[in-house]
Amino acid sequence: xxxxxxxxxxxxxxxxxxxxxxxxxxxxxxxxxxxxxxxxxxxxxxxxxxxxxxxxxxxxxxxxxxxxxxxxxxxxxxxxxxxxxxxxxxxxxxxxxxxxxxxxxxxxxxxxxxxxxxxxxxxxxxxxxxxxxxxxxxxxxxxxxxxxxxxxxxxxxxxxxxxxxxxxxxxxxxxxxxxxxxxxxxxxxxxxxxxxxxxxxxxxxxxxxxxxxxxxxxxxxxxxxxxxxxxxxxxxxxxxxxxxxxxxxxxxxxxxxxxxxxxxxxxxxxxxxxxxxxxxxxxxxxxxxxxxxxxxx
Length: 297
Fold this sequence. Notes:
Number of helices: 9
Order of helices and strands: EHEEEEHEHEHEHHEHEHEH
Distance between the termini: 10 Å
Radius of gyration: 18 Å
Strand order of the largest sheet: 1-5-6-7-8-9-10-11
Strand content: 5-15%
């Protein structure tokens, strides 16, 4: 029985909340309208309960590229409340990452949301990590999940660059350029700035942190130091396959790589590194990310 730390599933309440809006992000029927990305035709079947055979736990999360967390509080919280209520009602084997407002961070509200039973907090990679929010997490010994944020302009704060989808670029551009760049920047920012302030924080970076760990040779050459592998910084495997996973394992070791699918937009990759590595990536490492405790079964 494996753990999947990265899924998306929109409940009826969340869909209704998106349809109630007339400015991005919103749903027009099943057409998703966002700033900085072309209209996207959502398949309703993608957000029905899916086959979870073989999964001990599937953690669903808010779709941070929608930009919800950066809306003004009066627009943000109704959407987040709809997401939270729907996610908690899914039942086993589903769990969920909480989300929170970044235009006006509210640590007390985050604490109340986490205490409802969420596995931890997800933030967009384009959000400057708020120390008070992170202290709420570490006080509860819960992890953080860093996920790509919006691809459009004028959302988020430095040092995270933003590149809007331009008409001349293909539809896959946001996923391959802004999302990867965001994760790359976030990985290095957390190491350089966040870790010294929050030494006990466990963090998981989506999509293998945009392969940022593979740039260690350039980091050393530019004076960033050789450094040590941080056992509290995990990377999840969504959207990649055996070649990228193998390269990351060679750089970071097996113990910080965790299974993620990004369902319904992708499927969990097969690492192709043998049974022991599979068990580590799909079972042992995700459990340690979530609980902070080591298990071998």
